[in-house]
Structure formats: C-alpha cells, structure tokens
Amino acid sequence: MKTIKSGTVASESLARSPERSNRSGHLVHEDCEHRATQPAARAVGAFIEVKNVWQEYGDQVVLERLNLSINEGEFCTLVGASGCGKSTFLRLLLGQERASRGEILLGGEQLAAEPDSSRGVVFQRYSVFPHLTVLDNVAIGLELPRSKLLGRLFGAAKREAREQAAVILKKVGLGHALDKYPSQLSGGMQQRLAIAQALIMKPRVLLLDEPFGALDPGIRKDMHGLLLELWHETKLTVFMVTHDLSEGFSLGTRLLVFDKTRIDPHAPNAFGARITYDIPLNSDRRATRAAVEALPAHIAGNLQPAL
Amino acid sequence: MRLINRHPDRSGRLLLILLPFALLLFAYFAGSAQRLADNPNDKLLPSASQMAAAVDRLAFTEDKRSGNYLFWQDSAASLTRLAMGIGIAALAGLCLGIAAGIIPLFGAPLSPLLTVLSMVPPLAILPILFIVFGLGELSKVMLIVIGITPILARDLEQRAREIPQEILIKAQTLGASTWTLILRVVLPQLLPRLLIALRLVLGSAWLFLIAAEAIASTDGLGYRIFLVRRYMAMDVILPYVVWITLLAWLMDLGLRQTTRLCFPWYEGAKA
Questions:
Q1: Do A115 and A122 form a contact (C-beta atoms < 8 A)?
Q2: Which residues of B lie closer than 8 Å to A, measured between beta carbons?
Q3: Complex ipTM tops 0.90
Q4: CB contact under 8 A, B176 and A147
Q5: Closest Cα partner for A254 from A122, A6, A69, A82?
Q6: Cys staple from A120: which of A198, A294, B83, B119, with CB 3.0 to 4.6 Å?
Q7: What is the pTM of this model?
Q8: What CATH number is attached to the domain comprising B145?
Q9: Domain architecture of chain A: domains with CATH
C-alpha cells in the first residue's frame, strides 16, 4: 500500500474539497463493495456504475476488481503508468472490448457491447476521416443516423445538416477551415475537429484517449480551455486518459489513478491494475455546475446554449 | 560533389528523359539500315517507311475482303474486352477486398481462399475457360477477370486492413451501421487505392488479353500480331506493339490523373 505517497495528495485534495467527507475517501480500500454505504444521493442516481470489472487477456490480468460509480456530468481524468490499464478501461466504456468479468451500467442499463452514438470518442490520432472536408466530417454524424440506406442526405436535409455542423465548427474555432481536408490542418485543429465531430452527436459520455498527447504545450492549453468551455455548456460526462498529471489535476472534477497494488516479480502479468486513488478535484467547478442544474429548466436553458 | 547529391536541372531532366528513347530508336534504325543495305528484302528490321506503309494499309485503307479498317477494328475489339475485363475485375476485387478486409466473419473464409486462388496460373486454366465458356468473347474477358481479380482483391483487402481501427470505431460512434460504414467511410478511402492497384495490374491485363486473342479469336490486336507472324511481317508487328504500349501508357496516365482529380485528399492523407 502506498499510503505514504498518498499523504501529500490527500492533504491537497482535502484543502481543495470541503465535501471530501461525502465520498468514500481518496484511497479505495480492498472492500470496495462497501461503497454501497455511500450517501443516498450517490447510490440512487449513479450514472455509470462499474461493478467488479476484470479484464484479462489469456494469462495476463490487466484490470482487476474495479468498482466505481460516476455521477452524470463528472469530468474524470484517468492517470497512471503506461500499460496499467487506463486505455483498456476506456475501451471497456467505449464498448470496443467486453469485460472478462463484471458489468458496467450506463444509466442503469447494461452498456452496449459495441460502440454506438451514446458515447463519443476522441483518440490521439486517426480520429477524423481523411477523405471528407472539415464540414462533411461533422455533418456525416447527422447524416449516418438519419439515412440508413445510403448514409447520406440530399437537398434541404443536407443543407440543414451542414448548417448545424458549421455552427458547432465555429464554436470550436474552425469556422475558417470548413472546406479544408484534415491533412491540411495542424494537429491541434484536427483534434478540435475530432471534438466537434463527437459533440454533434450530443453523446451522454465523451471518452478522450490522450487527446492532446501529440500537441505542443501552448496549443494544449488552448484545447484545455475549449474542452472546459464545452463541458460547462453541455451535460457531458467526460472520461479522459492522460499521461500529463497536471492536466489530469487541472481539468478533472475527479482524478482516478490506475496502478498495480500487487506485483509478483516472477509473474508480472498475474495481477492487474486497480484504481488506487479516487480524488475529488475542482469542487468549485462542480458546485457551480450543480447550482446551474438546480435552476428551473427555462432559466438553465438560457444559460446553456444548445450545441 | 558526390553523385548522390547531383540533381539534373529542368532542361537537363528533359534531355535525360528523351535520351534513352532516342538511343533505342537510333540503335534500331541503324541496325535496320545496315541489314536493308545488305539485303533489301530483309524482313526482320523494317525501315520507318516500310512500317508507315503497313500502318497506312491497315489503318487508313479498307480491307479488300471485309471492307473494314483492320487496325481500328482490332483496337476497338481489344479495348472492349480489356475494359470489360478490368471493369468486372475491379468491381469484384473491390467487393471481395472490402468483405475480407473489414468484416471478420467474411475475412476468415475468404482470405485464405483468395491467397490460394491467386497462386493458380491463369494461363494454365485458359483451356478450361475455353471448354466452359466457349471460344467467344466471354472466355477472353473471363481470362482477364480471373487473372487480375485475386491480385486486386488481395491488395484491397490489405489496404482495407490498414484503415486505422480508430476510424472504424469513430464512424460507429457517429451512428454508422456496417453497411453505411462501408459506404461512407471504407469505400471512399479505398477507391483511390483501387485506381493505384489497377495501374499495377494493367500490364497483366494486357498480357492475358493478348494471350487469349492469340489462341482463339478472329480480331483484336493480339490476334493480328500472331496472325502476321506467319509471314514474318515485322512491319505490322512493330507498329502494333508500339500502339499497344501507347494505349497502356495512356491508360496508366488516365488512372493517375483520375486519382489526382477525384481524390484530392489522398496525396496529403498518405503523408
């Protein structure tokens, strides 16, 4: 157990988060099943529930005994050493892989076993379609679900889809590049495009797999601003895998640290990673958001411009 | 300066492009003049005027027996067969390649099958084609199709596999079904690759065409070449070979330009 290391982190999170006592604590204990004894508000309305999830590939255990409940609208950042299962966990949430054991519930229902439009995703690379212009890259998200046969809209419907796409592209700062192909965009602009593309579907969950890992520090900062702005405006629940610890702390409302708690030097694959720290962060932001959500719908609607 | 660092300038490049062709022509006509000086009836290396006369006879004079212009009739017949063969093969190769490369349940049985089938030498089964499809147009077209489809299919399967998994997942999160995913994401990305693959198999397609025409046909460029071989009519054979080469080169150029015009995103996306 790494209780010594956790000391500094814990005191920091304590200072920043007066409501820490509401949570089960920053250190996830072995008996995770006891999380059920949390305050009623959390137990009833948990948006995403991860119940005793294991992921194994043959002999190799990647994740073991994950238990987690996530409220709607949380911004979870996932950090940890390379190869400790953060991305695997994200793939489970995405439906790209199925858990070997356990189950993941989304809004009370079993998570669909394949990727679908309820969960948007942005990868580090290859997130956008190289053969479509910036505008069509986003408009295709409106075309595919509406046209089952051709995957393509025509006439007025197509114009409308493109207008909607243009609005969201302006919002992410790509209004000037609608007719360009992704290969003509810089890395940062491509990721902006990928985010716009994911948001046009109005997903309930946005999964980000090291989305800014390949970007320059300056551009990364711009992207953080953009992401937080979009998160404030929508009711999105975000999961973001990152290698950048400071990014994880500054963006998230909840930081999940993945690490192996048990290591057998003779069989390095025998034990999987678990969530060793679960740290509430940026409580001011979460509180603001909760307050906005508590407002009557007609007022809140004005505060949250529809995307 | 090291050789590897020396680049030809603009005019120098043009000169270097033309030089080998000029040398070849010079060597040919020097040899031809030499042989014709020794023996005016020599048929092996005809002179330019002899070839021009042959072309004039075949291309710009009505054939006395049939009343056709044989050169153009041959060209039309061959190009029709080639176009049909390549068209069918492209369509089949595209469908098989996508099915094998994108849909795992189809790829499992198709992939090994295509590998084995592409090893069958098409000319070895030409007699079977003649037995099954008769000596008409169908068997010639089928030889081209059978000859190049497995190559196209295997190449496109490979290219389809190279489409990043992320792209396919992204499309699914945007609400694509398997069918619309193929239609809107996979197919458009494979079309430029199909054109490139076609450029590479163009040579084989011509080979199979000429072979089929040589064995069983009554017209076509390959038929004519093999027909006049009996009279050692090099003055006909050589212009025909040059014409076939020119046609093949033009097709290659056409495919290259089509790729550039229709898929402007492709050049950049490769990098």
A1: no
A2: 164, 166-167, 169-177, 179-181, 183-185, 188-189, 263-266, 268-269, 271
A3: no
A4: no
A5: A69
A6: A198
A7: 0.81
A8: 1.10.3720.10
A9: 3-118+204-303 (3.40.50.300), 130-202 (no CATH)
